[in-house]
Every structure is written in C-alpha cells, then in structure tokens.
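Sample pair:
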Amino acid sequence: MTQNTDLPSDLLPTAVRQFLVAHIARDADTASSFLAEDAVIVDQDETFRNREETHAFLRDAGSEFEYTTEQIGAHRVDDTHWVVTVRLEGTFPGGVAELDYRFALRDDLIAELVIANHPA
C-alpha cells in the first residue's frame, strides 16, 4: 500500500537520511558507505553498477556546477521503497531542478537509487 505522506527527514530510514547528508555535502566516500555492494544508481537514463562505478558517479556528479540542495518532500512507498524530492538551484543549465531520489533498500542499505525529474 502506497503512503504518500510528506515525512520530515528524521523519519526516513537511517541509510537514506545519512546518504543524503553525505551526498549533499559532496562526501562520496561516506555516501558510498550506505550502498549495498551490488548497488545500482540510475541518473538521467545512465546506469552505474558496483562499488567502483557508483562511487565515481557520487564523486563526479554535478562537480562542474555550484548549487544548493533542499529537501522539499519525502514519502514511504512501502517497507523498502522511499522517495525524497529535492530542489537544486545553481549554475547548471536552467538554474533550478526538482528531482526525485527513489530509494530501494535491502538489509538496511541502499540497493538501488533512481534519480529522475519530479513530475510537474
């Protein structure tokens, strides 16, 4: 059963919450520590698999731009799936983006992360 209620970040699973803190701080080493060994990240239809690829993505994504990140929404889909919506503002083309970070958890780690445009 889908629960589309907005949640404060302190009610998100620890792995999701701590991943986001590290990712926003651009700390790829710490963010990677919340990923399962075989984690998959999908961003802009590009897929990154395994520790090496996902870590490189987390290290390099958006590094050519200056931007701020603000969590503007979050909800639980089911026991293992969570969605966090963030708003980015910065020097990238368009200057503003709202993205959904769709997390799938396994054994208290992030098994999959899909980053996609938030539906208008």
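The chain has three helices and six strands.
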